[in-house]
Amino acid sequence: MRKYLLTLLLLSFGVLTWAQGYKPGDKAIDFKLKNIDGQYVSLADFKEAKGFIVVFTCNHCPFSKMYEDRIIALDKKYKPLGYPVVAINPNDPKKQPEDSFDKMIERAKEKGFTFPYLFDETQEIARTYGATNTPHVFVLKKEGKDLIVSYIGAIDDSPREASKASKKYVEQAVDALLSGKEVQVKQAKAIGCTIKWKEM
Amino acid sequence: MMMLSCRIYRFLLVCLLCSPLVSWAQSVEVIKIDRLEKEIQEHKGILIVNFWATWCAPCVKELPDLYRIHQDFEAKGVKLLLVSLDFADEQPKALALLKKKGIALATFLLDETDYNTWIDRIEPRWQGAIPMTMIYKDGKKTAFIPGPVSYEALASHIQNQLNP
């Protein structure tokens, strides 16, 4: 019984021992993930890009849904300037059937996503980056061959009403990078849904 | 006649006394962060603070386990404080859900939507995903549990705190 409890304890608190993921200033790894059109996408494919707005998001999370239109708007505004949006769904569909690959295709069509919507099936990218929530943004800046993490966190400070956002964290970060300035706010936290990790 | 009314009165009194306290104990008070911090700091004994929301499936799923912990350890001075992160105008929704689950507790709804201003005040390691559970002893942190938690994990942590 004791052993059993200990195992359970270790399992439950195992969460705490995971790597913390990236911090601002770290070099991010590229990936190769399946897009909703069946093609595999890597950041290296975007030869012209100056950087990326990588968004871990999903179909089911109410906070992700609240931000969908704003994610589309970010892509519309910043893709022409060299910072396209790349969305990644890291959730285990076994835990949340809403977040299956087929449902991703549906959702993207419904909303008219203008950006890749990739499936992180092994969850390796979410873990490496240190994504914990949906939505969770990582702004990456290209420096030669490297991808430098320049901002991590929330899109803005008003999940429910876009019009009431007074701190547009992602926009401020990308604007700063585009004008060759230091990003002022490198991290901003927000409430969101826990990423649905696979059972170990 | 007199006898009868007296009987009715007594009957009513008994009814009143026997009526479940559940209906009185359930509440969702809308609060600000300062109030939550004060509650945490001033609680003597073990306090489990769980952040949840009606829209969060894993949160709702673990509520019964958390409530069982409360029932099983209340006598040992362990208190469960549920903190809803629903929007303030959805307070009735949170209350209805607690009622449906039969959770007879006084709970909070934290009305702070500028998340970046208070998440670190609770726990710098917390990125903001819910569910999230903190455990305190006499106002001091003893555990930070991001993501879902189980009855067993909480129970063994509490046992360790009670019998160090």
From TrEMBL, chain A:
UniProt xrefs under PANTHER family: OS07G0260300 PROTEIN, THIOREDOXIN-DEPENDENT PEROXIREDOXIN
Keywords carried by this UniProt record: Signal
Protein origin, superkingdom: Bacteria
Signal peptide: 1-19
Domain Thioredoxin: 22-179
InterPro entries: AhpC/TSA, PRX-like1, Thioredoxin-like_sf, Thioredoxin_domain
GO MF annotations in UniProt: antioxidant activity; oxidoreductase activity
Organism: Thermonema lapsum
Gene3D superfamilies according to UniProt: Glutaredoxin
Protein's UniProt name: Peroxiredoxin
Automatic annotation (TrEMBL), chain B:
Keyword Signal: yes
Signal peptide (residue range): 1-25
Protein name: Thiol-disulfide isomerase/thioredoxin
Keywords of the record: Isomerase, Redox-active center, Signal
Single GO MF descriptor: oxidoreductase activity
Organism in which the protein naturally occurs: Thermonema lapsum
PROSITE patterns tied to this protein: THIOREDOXIN_1, THIOREDOXIN_2
InterPro entries: AhpC/TSA, Thioredoxin-like_sf, Thioredoxin_CS, Thioredoxin_domain, Thioredoxin_ResA/DsbE_sf
One Pfam entry name: AhpC-TSA
Annotated ranges, domain Thioredoxin: 22-163
